[in-house]
Amino acid sequence: MKTETVAMILAGGQGSRLGKLTKQIAKPAVPFGGNYRIIDFALSNCANSGINNVGVVTQYQPLVLNRHVGNGASWGLNRHNGDATILQPYSSVDGEKFFRGTSHAVYQNINYIDQKNPDYVVILSGDHIYKMDYEKMLDFHKEKAASLTVGVMPVEWEEASRFGVMNTDRTDRITEFQEKPDEPKSNLASMGIYIFNWPRLKQYLVDNQSKNRQMDDFGHHVIPAYLRNSEAVYAYKFKGYWKDVGTVESLWKANMEFLDPDHELNIRDADWKVYSQNPNTTPQFLTDTAKVKDSMITDGCYISGEVNHSVLSHNVKIGKNSVIKDSVIMSGAVIGENVIIEKAIIGENANIYDGARIVGENGEISVVGYEEEVGGYKDAE
């Protein structure tokens, strides 16, 4: 059956800049905003944009991510004419076992894409927080008769070296591209969102692989090759909230911004919902000693202490006389009594024993990792 568009979500990154938080799970599986995991935003954008065929490319620590995505049912993608498919590295005839880069991951999954027989393939990152209608970007792509369209937005100049940056002409055609340059010539940054004409991209990937030319990464190799060959490459300028949560500071800041009821992301918009897997846990419970202010408290939480301007994911427990302020507490964390947590991120299933103090200082965010234990007899040994 002919499918106009297939989306490929690249969700295999290690996320090393998140340190302890990604030692045992992939970055796109990291909890966010109490009710979600980071990948939920890309998946929800696909569902809301009418893209029902989605390949999720995984690699690093994929177990939690695979279980979370499943067959895409939580996002309404498990339809008779669509699905979400987990795509993992496998040993091929040439001995390849792991993805060498973003475009190599797509090359390794050519058979999956060809089964859908699409005109276009949308390449997405699984680790950004945003809402975007990909259909509008596809309309722009068609209008420009583009071979490749890159989603872009301006960033702060001091941040530009972290991104692929580009210059465009008056028609939005890209004339110059630099991938993570030391001295950027522009602050117009790639969002890691691409729309390709699939037959043309496939030709590039297959031809260069057969000639042993390096074509492993979209930013370093594919986009420069398209520009060298005078392909029609355009920039689609996105206006809206978009956050790369690849560092501890950016992840914490995005969660704190999420608490604003007037947040630009507008999570309560019934016309563009962000979906996630429902954990089917118990309702939250606040004891007579609990004090909660300006916070997000999700299902399964049990609170006997004080929570101020913080985000609590599912099944968090907070003991008496404990104070949580300006912090992110991920699913399953247990906080004992008389604990002080401020300007911190506490990883999933962490255990913070009675009397512990975890406070970010000197502008740094304090981090406790996945299943990490702090305080108590363990630390006294």
Model description:
- With 381 residues, the chain is of the alpha/beta class.
- It folds into two domains: 1-256, Spore Coat Polysaccharide Biosynthesis Protein SpsA, Chain A (Alpha-Beta Complex); 283-372, Hexapeptide repeat proteins (UDP N-Acetylglucosamine Acyltransferase, domain 1), CATH 2.160.10.10.
- Helices cover 21% and strands 28% of the residues.
- It contains nine helices and 29 strands.
- The strands form seven sheets. The protein has a seven-stranded mixed beta sheet with strand order 5-4-1-6-11-8-12.
- A hairpin with a 5-residue loop joins strand 9 and strand 10 (174-179).
- The chain is elongated and about 65 Å long.
- Residues 7-259 form the Nucleotidyl transferase domain.
- Alpha-D-glucose 1-phosphate binds at residues 164, 179-180, 190.
- Pathway: Glycan biosynthesis; glycogen biosynthesis.
Instruction: Give a count of the beta strands, DSSP E runs of length 2 or more.
Output: 29
Strand content: 25-35%
What gap, in angstroms, lies between the N and C termini?
64 Å
Helix content: 10-25%
Class computed from helices, strands and strand pairing: alpha/beta
- CATH level-four homologous superfamily name of the largest domain: Spore Coat Polysaccharide Biosynthesis Protein SpsA, Chain A
> For the residues shown, what is the average pLDDT?
91
Largest sheet: 7 strands, mixed
H/I helix tally:
9
The top-level CATH class of the largest domain is: Alpha Beta
* Tally of individual domains: 2
Widest β-sheet, arrangement of strands:
5-4-1-6-11-8-12
Indicate the radius of gyration in whole angstroms: 22 Å
- State the CATH architecture of the largest domain: Alpha-Beta Complex
Q: State the low-pLDDT regions, or none.
A: none
Shape: elongated
